[in-house]
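Now for a specimen:

…
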Amino acid sequence: MYKIRAVLLATFAVAGMAVVSAPAAQAASYTQVGYASSFGRQVYLWRNNDNGCIHAQGKSMRNGDEVILRVVSGGLVIGEDVQRANATGVSVNTQSLCNKGGAGFRGLVKDANANGPETGTYQNW
C-alpha cells in the first residue's frame, strides 16, 4: 500500500511540474561579401550581420576537396580554417573568423590538384 501511494505521489509530482523551455534563439542574418566559381565548384564569403565574423562556404564540392577561409594582414596569413568534403556534391562551411581592423578575407576551394575558385579579398572593418 505504501509503495502504491509513493508511486502515485511521485507521478502527480512529476505531472504537476511546469515545463519551461528557453526562448528560441534568433537566427543570425548574413550578407554575401564574396563569390567565385571555376572547375564546377563555387565558393562564397558570408559576413554575419550581428558580430561581423566571416565564414566561407564551398558548394558542389567533391570528396576530398577543401574549402579554405584565409585571413591576411600586411601580406601575412594571420588566420586560416580548412574544412574537407567527405562526399561528392556537398556544401561545406568553414568556421567563422572574426579578425577586423581591415584584415583581408579570401575564400578558396581546392581540389586534389590545387585547382579551384578563389574570391577576391574582402576587407573587414
Summary: Residues 2-15 form the longest helix (14 residues). Residues 66 and 84 are 4 Å apart (CA to CA). The longest strand covers residues 30-38.
